[in-house]
Amino acid sequence: MKIFSSSSFLLVFTICIIGCVNFVYTAPTKIGNGYSLIAIEESPDGGLIGYLKVKKKNNIYGPDIPNLQLYVKHETDNRLRIHITDADKQRWEVPYNLLPRESPPSLKQTIGKSRKGQFSLLSNQEYSGNELMFSYTSDPFSFSVKRKSNGQTLFNSSSEDPDPYSNLVFKDQYLEISTKLPKDASLYGLGENTQPHGIKIYPNDPYTLYTTDQSSINLNMDLYGSHPMYMDLRNVNGEAYAHAVLLMNSNGMDVFYRGDSLTYKVIGGVLDFYFFSGPTPLAVVDQYTEFIGRPAPMPYWSFGFHQCRWGYHNLSVIEDVIANYKKAKIPLDVIWNDDDHMDGKKTSPSILLTTLAQS
Fold it and tell me: Where is coiled-coil annotated (predicted)?
């Protein structure tokens, strides 16, 4: 008695093959081959300046930028800066007049000048500050940031073969860098976006920063602002420690947190990292806002009753709304208008504020 027809056997065989294929692990494709640190020496301002050269070019997401400039400096006792950019051409950065900060020295004007153009590497691969310590590996180039008081590694950009992320990638419209993290770290931040868990960062949730004007009613959406900063809270031998990492980059980016690593994938600009040592959450916030600017005090009128919406087409409509609030005896101190009053919304999303004096 024939149990299977030839067609049935072929179907079962195909299903088995597909099932077996699904269990075969395929390593993720790595985008770049990293860079080599060719030279590094002290800069005139007391930092470090280095010269990086791409190891092997490819054209995935465009050609690699061949030469990079590395600049590292302990700017304060609790803040370390690591800046990486194109060594030959200027790239977009958050404007220095918008957020005042030190401008890195030029690689061409500093490195090798004391040795008539002969490149060299420092004998000491560690650069220590009051609490944070920068160290590097030359080939392939990677760096780490450690806390001196307890030896904890706060950031480690190296990539091993099994890791699902690349070494440093630096192309015109694609930058990638990652850090290894302990599994017991608790991360918070990376705004603005609508996350189901609030400000706590959970593994495998999408974190996209793109500064788009869209409703916040949906989850996992990027919003108006971009704040590529996260605070890392850790329990080290029963003691609590906090630090923060800021990537000063205003371009669109995806940030992937896997639980034991975090990867930045950015579509432009530079890699300009700031590390704040804490060690308490309050100290981190104090150090961070000292750098980017303190929150402005709230004006008294802002504590009143506000109304805001999009869709008021002219001033008479707004006057009717105000009159109806008064008629219904609903308190109203401020009414906000969205971009309806602008010429073709050309300066969206600026906001016109009208304050009301009601008896």
Answer: none
- pLDDT > 50? residue 148: yes
The answer to whether the beta carbons of residues 121 and 37 sit under 8 Å apart is: yes
Over residues 172-187, the pLDDT tens digits come to 999 999 999 999 889 9
316 phi and psi angles, rounded to 5 deg:
-65, -35
44: left (phi over 0), alpha (psi -120 to 50) or beta: alpha
Answer for the pair 285, 276: CB distance below 8 angstroms, yes or no: no
Q: What is the gyration radius of the CA atoms in the chain, in angstroms?
A: 26
**DSSP letter, residue 216:** S
pTM of the model: 0.83
Between 29 and 168, residue with greater pLDDT: 168
How far lies 78's CA from each of 71, 75, 126, 171, 286, in Å? 17, 8, 17, 31, 11
Backbone angles phi, psi at 14, to 5 degrees: -65, -40
Backbone angles phi, psi at 67, to 5 degrees: -125, 130
In whole numbers, what is the pLDDT of the chain averaged over residues? 86
Token digits of residue 332: 């109203």
Q: Are 281 and 311 in contact (CB under 8 A)?
A: no
Residues whose CB is less than 8 angstroms from the CB of residue 284 and which lie 6 or more positions away in sequence, other chains included: 231, 242, 243, 244, 276, 278
Local structure of residue 64 (DSSP, 8 states): B
Q: How is residue 104 annotated by DSSP?
A: P
Residue type for 351, please? I
Contacts of residue 219, Cβ cutoff 8 Å, sequence gap at least 6:
194, 195, 196
- pLDDT confidence tier of residue 110, bands split at 50, 70 and 90: low
d(CA 162, CA 258): 14
- Main-chain dihedrals φ then ψ at residue 260, nearest 5 degrees: -125, 10
The distance of Cα 254 from the centroid of its chain, to the nearest Å, equals: 8
Q: How far apart are CA 202 and CA 15, in angstroms?
A: 35
**Of 15 and 306, the one with more pLDDT:** 306
pLDDT-based confidence at residue 239 (cuts at 50, 70, 90): very high
Question: How far separated are the first and last CA of the chain, in Å rounded?
Answer: 97
Tens-digit pLDDT profile for residues 317-353 = 999 999 999 999 999 999 988 777 777 766 544 344 4
